[in-house]
Amino acid sequence: MAARDPLPFDPIDRAAKLWAERIGPSDTMAAVTSVMRVQQILLSAVDAALKPHNLTFARYEALVLLSFSRAKRLPMRVMGERLQLHPTSVTNIVDRLQADGLVRRTPHPTDRRATLVEITPEGLERLEHATKSVTAVDFGLVGLDAEGKASLFDLLGRIRAASGDFR
Length: 167
Known about the structure:
Elements: H1 11-22, H2 27-50, H3 57-68, E1 73-75, H4 76-83, H5 87-99, E2 103-107, E3 115-119, H6 121-136, H7 146-162
Antiparallel strand pairs: 1-3, 2-3
Pfam families: MarR_2 (PF12802)
Protein name: MarR family winged helix-turn-helix transcriptional regulator
Domain HTH marR-type: 28-161
């Protein structure tokens, strides 16, 4: 999965030791830097798995969200809220998905100001194949068993909740 040969040492651990010597306690810096590096590793693995399907993770997430909705469609505003994206970002994602024939926009039946985004049969098929690809690489989350993944989810959830990400 690594695009290059691994380093013979952990640069974050080395930076933490130097931080502790020169600045002060390094536990927070080391933890945050590790999370940021793991995010890069995961995104790289997921992007590589999705590339053959002509999808980015953002577009993949949008397709998953639409497929999970009962009617396979949602207002763009709701998509933005659930994906935690700015309306402009949602518009760009939907534009790309629509250009590929994976979603279609339809007028909202009761709110003239709203637009619904609906996943197409082609979108569902592409999503199925893409999901097989990302699950085949375990979304890039290697090195953890089921218990480790549950612990990680719990720890990250605590940070998200404390930061006001959800109630």
